[in-house]
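Might I ask for a little of your time on a matter of protein folding? The record follows directly beneath this note:
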Amino acid sequence: MARLTIEMPHVGESVTEAVIGKWLVSPGDTVRRYDPLVEVITDKVNMEVPSPRDGTITGLLVSEDDTVQMGAPIAEMEVEGATPEPEHVASPEQETAVSAGPSVQAASRVGSMIIGANVGPTGGEFTDTSLQTEPSTESAQAAAPSAPSRRRRRERDDRGARISPVVRRLAEKHGLDVNAIPGTGAGGRVTRKDVETYLESQTTGQLDELIEPTAIRRIIADNMARSFREIPHAWGAVEVDVTELVRYRKANIDRIQEATGQRLTYLPIVLQSIAQALREHRLLNSSWVDGKVELKGDINIGVAVAAEQGLIVPVLHNADRLTLEETVSEMSRIVDGARAGKLNLDDVQGGTFTLNNTGALGSILGGAIINYPQAAIMTTEAIVKRPVVVDTPTGDEAIAIRSMMNMCLSFDHRIIDGAEAMAFMNDVKTRLESISQDIDS
């Protein structure tokens, strides 16, 4: 028998570390090639790392909830034959799933992605999404049962979640019912930290509560802090009369439904107008790289989607080249993929600008944190009806009830000044206010 070290797989140039979410094997387990060994979480995707060979797991080198650099050793196994070189082996299904994007050679399943920009959730008329992604916070030692095989039946609580031996012994020591303890682990599993927190709550009464952030929340927090620390944010807003946009959507719901099978919302129409405006205002579609401004050749717009644990931003590639029907169809595909956890790396990489809709939550004004390393992020706010002064065909002024919406833009002040930011926003404003004449369907 020879010993093989299993390393954390590389999943793309921009991903340098990952968090160990949940071990799926224990020391002593016999595994076959491509069997999933561990769930890992990055700021791009969640995935399962498969076994590179047939063999027996001899040791877990890192614990659940640990942050590990790409290429670092995470486990050891014994295999038949001579000691092989460290390898990263992808399953046939995974090779197909990510063939269009960067290599994820050790991932057998590409799952959901989170990205750490402080952008608000989308929903309502624009997008309505939900993504369940919850990493374990229990240590590998607590998560690993003592049985020699992971196929052996494990003790579970009344909710169906597995109870590790460490958690069971700790609960019994203090006379606690595991079923009464809220679980924060994967699938509602009670972790050792949950038991300790529960014990503290019983002794401290109504004192302040400390909540252990999930691995995903920590990644989001790090990325938000980095964006706000490294990018000098500036902010502006314009008011848009979207009465014609509302009429356009109402008039085209049936046509788009028949052509695409999808319900037409406001967001694809707004996104298309932004994509066209980015052609004329290239500084908004750029990044600050080593003291220089990198103007992006493609216009790839990320759409912020709400998740219970954080945010996911799938990307609509080459958005300026799509018709409205194509925009609706592609947006539906990536949003549904986010909901089902079936996005591949190409769906979440390459974004050059981000669109976010906080209006679905009732917000009327706000400033978002830029999605690093992009140069800007735009938020669309709630559409409300109110009286405004309008010009009449005779040249007089009158008060009319109009549908109004605020658009807010956060931008990198190293690259963009207020004049350029306002020129871009006014371009989008003009396109939306004259939507019945200018829309490209």
Q: What stands out?
A: The chain has three domains: 2-110, 140-204, 218-438. Residues 86-154 have pLDDT under 50 and may be disordered.
